[in-house]
Amino acid sequence: MDRPRLNIYLDDPTLQEKIKIAAARRHMSLSAYALLALRRQLAVDGLLPAAESPEEAARALDELRARVGPIGVPVTELIEEGRRR
């Protein structure tokens, strides 16, 4: 499969090494790490939907629950129902 490519020229000679270290810490390739960073920035710029971390997703879910209000079923019943399935 032929995928689009993007070449990036760095303005700081030490930046490439820092990117390599950051990618290795996440067990990612340089391409995957750079793509993740670009997608996050595009989301900040409003050009892509936000890619949420688990913490951000939980916070958004809590806000949604507060707007929607109680669902009328105790949480313990939902947990029990989930265990039965």
Give a written overview of the molecule.
The protein has 85 residues and is an all-alpha fold. It folds into two domains: 51 residues; 34 residues, no CATH class. Helices cover 60% and strands 0% of the residues. The chain contains four helices and no strands. The N and C termini lie far apart (41 Å). 0% of the residues are buried.
Keywords:
0% strand, single chain, elongated, 85 residues, mainly alpha
Short description:
The chain has 85 residues and is mainly α. The protein has four helices and no strands.
How much of the residues is beta strand, in percent?
under 5%
Total strand segments: 0
Ranges where pLDDT stays below 50 over 5 or more residues in a row are none
Which structural class do you get from the secondary structure elements?
Answer: mainly alpha
Give the termini distance in whole angstroms.
Answer: 41 Å
Shape: elongated
Number of domains: 2
Q: What is the gyration radius calculated from CA atoms? A: 20 Å
User: What's the total helix number?
Assistant: 4
Sheet having the most strands: none
Estimated helix fraction: 55-70%
